[in-house]
Amino acid sequence: MKKGVDITLIKVKTATMHGLDMLDVVVEVNITSRGFPSFDIVGMASKSVQESRERVRSALIASGFEFPQKKILVNLIPADMQKGGTAFDFPIAAAIIAHLCNKSLPANTYFYGELSLSGDLNYTKGCFNLGLHILHSGKKGRILIPKRSEGEVKLLEGLAYIPFSNLKELSLILGREDGIKLSYGQKVYSNIERPIKNDTHLLEHIKGQERAKRALLVSLCGWHNIMFIGSPGTGKTMLANSIPAMLPQLSYEDSIEVTRIYSSTGLLNESTFLIEETPFRTLHHSASMAGIIGGGNPFRVGEIGLAHKGVLFFDELPEFPSRILDFLRQPLEDKHINLARFNYKITIPSDFLLVATANPCSCGYYGSKVKDCICTTAQRQRYFSKISGAILDRVDIIVPVNLQEESGSSVSEYNSTKYFKKIIERVRTKHKNSLISKTVAKGNIKDESKGFTLNSKTQKLFDQASRSLNISMRSQVKILNMSRTIADIEEKTEIEEAHMLEAISYRTSYLSTFNKYY
């Protein structure tokens, strides 16, 4: 805090959100008796930052402080960068309180938080991201945050912080550098299996559909994109909705990565600070482009980003606009999306499993034994024309789902949610601890040292199928990848002919299915 003849200049550290990242900002507060009383904020402050003037004024008065009848100018550095959000309330108020109490603020300290009109500190999104920013950048310092956001930062091991409930508590540490009681984050992660909720959709609720269930198992074990095609009432959506109960918990590293995304979007709350369950995001074709992809001002992560390390479910895929479906090409290939607008450029991680359903035509009954289809050939072609060949080529498994006749037989334990989950956890753990998935992702299908050893018969089968079906290089990689997954499900070291045939069938099913529609 610097003082002139009748001027006080106070600098406070804080940060602002830029996509998922935090950027350092210095809040300069100039308070002087010269000129008419005013309160202004400069430095490319958005409307939400400009509104902090009224929140700060009311919060200070409600907390028992006398708001200075002076000229107050707040400058946000760097001044050429757009700044938004409500977390600037606390650092601005802290600077004014330091002036009123004629005491200095603690050094190497970030102030971050939104104020209520009563002077209390509200839950503020982004505290988790700020903590990660300090830890990863190697900065020495601590953060002062709302008590209601403490749950986010106390999970970050080694982070020094002080939680505050209101502005009155701040006066207790002003002018002090020693003796300030700090709290430190600790690694908290519980890898305990959660009980299945009563209202959860289970695989046991679906009678029959053995092939579709098997394909779903292969999909979840190897993280292969899957699409179910069938008439209404065949169980396509039920199959997709049974996925969350079979998904294992996120690893600690993935949990931190996903929580970072949810914190930036304000989807954490005072009871949920660490996202441990694998995300499952369901999309409807009425959703907007910004809602699915992300965007806006201030920026908000879309469903594609929120599905990171989880599942993104498109119900009735052909009903979505073509421009949204075409946008899927980048995240499906690169596992991230790049968004460029006039005032920002952001990269959002989006490593998700695509699950989709579709009717076979506009009326939904093409090929059905229950009801005659009323669509013309042109209508069927037009219905699926929204889905480009490039998108279809990135879907590993396409499974026709037909109506099953009622059966009084009970569901086998080998088709139960519990049994599937056990297999999925085993296979995914094996893949995570090996180089198999990385090898396939790079398209290195000839690298036998990574677990893709084929005997002569299996290799011959693979080569013949590739030639006769005119399979693209990407599809060849997908077939080999699925073969490896199927072998791991069967706990086989070597890929056998049966594994290869099953994997090929998921691609030939794709070809035969869409040859009917185009």
Describe this structure in words.
This protein has 19 helices and 20 strands. It has 518 residues and is α/β, with parallel strands linked by helices. It has three domains: 2-184, Ribosomal Protein S5, domain 2 (2-Layer Sandwich), CATH 3.30.230.10; 203-430, P-loop containing nucleotide triphosphate hydrolases (Rossmann fold), CATH 3.40.50.300; 434-518, Helicase, Ruva Protein, domain 3, CATH 1.10.8. The strands form six sheets. A five-stranded mixed sheet has the order 1-2-3-5-4. The chain has a five-stranded parallel sheet with strand order 13-16-19-12-20. Helix 4 (127-137) packs across helix 8, helix 6 runs parallel beside helix 15 (417-432) and helix 17 (456-468) packs parallel to helix 19.
Key terms for this structure?
518 residues, alpha/beta, Ribosomal Protein S5, domain 2, Rossmann fold, Helicase, Ruva Protein, domain 3, 3 domains, 5-stranded mixed β-sheet, 19 helices, 20 strands, elongated
